[in-house]
Queue: 4 jobs
Job 1
Amino acid sequence: MKYLSSWHHYFDRQQRGMSLIVVLLLLVIVSMLGVASMQISLMGERGARNDRDMQVAWQGAEAALTDAQIGLRNASNPIDTLVIDTGCSTTAGTRGFCRPNLSATKALWLTVDFNDATGTAESAALGTYTGRTFANANGVANKGIQPAQAPRYIVEDLGSAASGQGQQVTSNYNGASFSSNFGHDYRITAMGFGPRSDIQAVAQTIFRH
């Protein structure tokens, strides 16, 4: 009897030891699941925030494209007074208007610093020639969810660069020759900014006028 009592006492202690190990393992598993769930939630939140920031930048770029097109439709177009042969003007009144160098190995819009908002910038800010506005933080931190700075753009006069007289197109149809002057082609390149200036979106279009 004494032997059986000692055996049961030993077996009970062993069971209590195994229960403790099982409980600890369950706690570790639950903790790992909790950490994984938290990381997934943080990744989702981070992805949503990045998407929102890029949408802000894209909206700015699209707004700058529209602003440039409105400026080009203006009768007093600064491109008419542009005196440079190649490159982008940095002077008031013609800032942001460019004549590309057709023999260059790199496109002009790839060489422009759109982050530059100083008085010697090669790009023009939205509203420079139209008076339109675009809400932004103007480089000041802690201004909420809005662009870090106003979107900027350049306008390349492709027609003037090619011939000085616009794009002349000649075609033949059923033996007859047709010539049409479609005016100038302009390549507009715009950059919008997210809540941080390093979040950028570039949009480009060809505008004929």
Note: The mean pLDDT is 78.
Job 2
Amino acid sequence: MGYRKLYPIMLKVQRRHQTPCTREEWDQRSCAGKGAKCPILIIGTLNGSRVRLSTAKFLPPEKARDFEAARALALDWEKTGVVARPAEYAPAPPSSEETTADSSPVTVERAVAAFMADSRDRGNSDATLQKKATVFERRTARDPKDREALIPSQATSLLRHCDQKGIRFLSELDLNTIRDWRSDWKVNSLVRQKRQGQVIGFFWFCERAGWLPRNYASDITRGLGRIQVKVTQTGYFQPDEYRAVIDATYLYSDRPTIDKHNSLLIGGDRIRALTELMRWTGLRIRDAVTLERNRVSHDPATDIWSVMVYQKKTGDPVYCPIPPDVADALRTIPASQKGNTNDTYFFWTGSGLPKTIVSNWQRSYGKLFRLTALKEPGGQPKRCHPHMLRDTFAVESLLAGMRLEEVSTILGHSSVRITEKHYMPWVRARQASLNQSVMASWAKQGKVPLGKSTVVQIRRPGAA
């Protein structure tokens, strides 16, 4: 009982409401909405460690979202001081027939194949599947010296690491092995954090499949710890910088050696339309360059043009109004320099992979930003990329007084907390309330006369 004095145990059970439930996210009342049965989390402190776990990892499906079962599980953890699945819900040992049928240990290759197949069955996007394949599978790349030859990728995936270390079976992947593999990740802290999350998800999958002992994934999760990521301020284009970007589109050409003779700057018209689209809708570059023409609509009653910003992460279609000049630029967009066009898409012919067309446009933006030649306050060149147009939409909307929840909906974030994490410093209503509270405290402390009304203006970052 000595550890209870050193580490107070405080666990609480909370329901987190999600669509189709109509309750607020952390409203602890029963679910509202047809077919709603929201997940339950156990949150608190246990043995000096923070606990924030879903009951779905420790209870069978029929009990995972039952509030009483969740309370009983939290009480069991408080009594034992251990985060574990209750004994009555532990997977039953295989029968003698099952053991005979498949008594060989599971290989890492088989587990990775099953994990990737499960990800495809659950409807993960192609981009997500590609990221997982980079982390787990053996990848190949084209030899730059021979276009027909394929060579092993330099990325250290799980299967390639196992090949190098002579690891064959899943049971050999202990904490030290994973740490050794993690030390080979030559990526920044944010990518390391996301990659570690995928690895932890892989171990939870294997444990639920019965290939690893109970609590194996929990031990790996705690042992790996949390990767610290330095939070940086969101970069965006201030109004004068954005005007400079638009001005540069009138000088931009995909074929400068040809267009300087006939002044056909078709590439500039196209990249200007794409830039305006991303700036005024917050679309990611992939969603913008693959935008279908039928997703731009006009309401004759209000004379408002809108873009349906259908977001795959939330699954809900949202209509974002766009200025009339942006709608005109989209409707009159010329064909590409090669004359390619498509009746379905604005910026894409529909041929090839979306990833390819995104890479092409990213190279075009590299040329455009070099023409713009923006500078930081210290005089060094400003690092620019297309995603800053999405950030510009969010920041400028918040500075104009738009509610955080509304911006989060248009951006397609799965939770308003994601929006808060990146854009909270620019929420005008929050800063205005903070200003008024501080000024009221000045009056009470005698710093300024009581009742004196002073308005503290909210300035843009970097403004003089």
Note: The chain has a mean pLDDT of 80.
Job 3
Amino acid sequence: MTIPAAPPARFIHADDSWYGIDLRDLWEYRELLYFLVWRDVKVRYKQTLLGVAWVVLQPVLSTILFTVIFGFLVKIPSEGHPYALFAFCGLLPWIYFADSLNRGANGLIANANLISKIYFPRIFIPLASVIAPLLDFLLSFIILIAAIFVLGIPLTWHILALPLFAGLACLAALGAGLWLSALNVRYRDIAYAMPFLIQIWLYASPVVYSATLVPPRWRVLYAVNPLVAVIEGFRWSLLGDTKLDSAVVLIGVIAVAIALFSGLIYFKRTEQVLADVI
């Protein structure tokens, strides 16, 4: 009687490379990314009373609050447009970015059981955190476009640049999410600091005011925040006659590229010991 040979052993380990992501690996597990995104969308609105209505309520209520405080009381200039519309254009990309950042920072910890049991490209978790909020963004964008038409503001050819600034917002959220998710695995203080970080980042971005209010000598440093280019680009694309500083956009693109590339490197290094320290 012959004894069947044992099947060859297969060892699964993290890629040792520091410089990037295995694209073939991502393509092979692409269906898992779809299910991670769909799971995040369903969990967000599961057993909620208002459901998807929260997508509209959050930017609308925030716009009303900012309009009363900063538009009527403080009287911050809104570049000749109704302050409510001015604030809504800033809130739309900001809410998407803040939501993606919060999900991405806590994603690895929230999926600790999944990570410790099976192999899949770990970058799918912060990537899903960036893709899932796009549904909320699109629904809110419809409300914004409706408000623009109701107020009689004509759309110009600038609208063609809007997908570029939306893509820049996605890449900025991914770069920051890679850094924060990896840091949160090693230092759990990140989870406690996130609400404070997001609040500070809100007022460090031109959501309730225009970037033109920043003194020229500080504008280069201010533009290192990639949300400056994103939000100013959104207003320029949608409102047409607002000013857009090309230097601010260029600095924002460079900042996003640096954050994304360095975030990939740090995430890959953390991935090699992820299952051990999570």
Note: Residues 50-277 form one domain.
Job 4
Amino acid sequence: MNDWQTIRPTKGWQMIDLGELARYRDLLYFLTVRGIKARYAQSVLGVGWAIIQPLFSTLVFTVVFGNLARVSSDGIPYALFSFLGLAPWTYFSSTLNESANSLVSNAGLITKVYFPRLVLPLSAALSKLLDFAISLSILVFFMIYFQVAPGWGLLALPLLLIILLTTSLGLGMILSAMSVQFRDVKHALSFVVQLLMYAAPVVYSTSAVPQAWRFWYSLNPMVGVIEGFRAAFLDRPLPWDLIWPGAAVGAFLFVFGMFYFRRMEKVFADVA
């Protein structure tokens, strides 16, 4: 007796089938590993690029914004200040770009075999965690050089990582579903990501933001994540007034992204 299943399109707004996703965990693992290997395949430096890119970005930001523009860094050495902003931001921006294009770049796979399509943007987000982990290891050397020690705020690091991951994946699911039907998303995304960087405190401190705008500014999830990272690693009070509003928005984006992705899933194979 053949063990087969009839696949029917979903109707209306439905939640992601987490049980089905769990059954395809081996595929998720394979695609995550494939994403890591493909990124550094036939590369002379290999994972060394995950070290060079944040270091050069930090150098450029330190010279341009720290030395020439003299942007305030709240008394923190600007190299350390900018690196603590670039580490989570680089993960967010690279995950957004890769997950948004994950469906289009795997169109051949989508049209030939069935599997939970969420595996594609999720594997893109997970594969970028290696680069992020390497960035955090570089941070150790920065802290030793500048003689800075972290405090108890590091206990909040898992929460900040969850906010970072859910925000990145939530937006990634929304944009990946949109990019299947609207190829303009791919072309506009790189430009939009550059603009978004200046809407987060990557090169400047939140102390430069007027108090009247602080709450609305905190609705950007990356604001609380970046300032939370700086506070955690520099033994400063955690800015909960920036973290919680952003966490709420990040959770909303994640939940809405799952529902929207599920709703659009039925047309992926037709228009990919």
Note: Residues 157-181 form the longest helix (25 residues).
